[in-house]
Amino acid sequence: MIYNVFNENLLTYCKEPQFQGQHIDLAPPPMIINEEEYEIEHNQWIAETGLSHAKEVIEDYWTRILSQNL
Q1: CA separation for the pair 28, 30 (Å, rounded)
Q2: What number of other Cβ atoms are within 10 A of residue 54's Cβ?
Q3: Whole-angstrom Cα distance, residue 56 to residue 49?
Q4: 23 or 67, which is more confident
Q5: DSSP states of 3-69
Q6: What's the CA gap between 61 and 54, in Å, rounded?
Q7: C-alpha 19 chain-centroid distance
Q8: Would you give the DSSP letter of residue 70?
Q9: What are the distances in angstroms from CA 59 to CA 45, 47, 62, 70?
Q10: Could you read off the pLDDT of 18-59 as tens digits, one per residue?
């Protein structure tokens, strides 16, 4: 079991915004664009070579992952 330990003397109380410009609006709820639902029939890992029908999606995935690690 892992425990996080904090030095209580280093903590400060949260202060309410004093000026109008300090108020941060929360992000709006996500927009649902596609409401299609899919049911998974098999719980298995499939090698990338077995997903030839999803080649473009896989390329987009790797582009995003590699751009985050730069």
Answers
A1: 6
A2: 13
A3: 13
A4: 67
A5: -----GGG-------SSGGG--PPPPPPP----------------GGG-GGGHHHHHHHHHHHHHHT
A6: 11
A7: 31
A8: -
A9: 18, 14, 5, 17
A10: 777 777 777 888 887 777 777 777 777 888 888 888 889 889
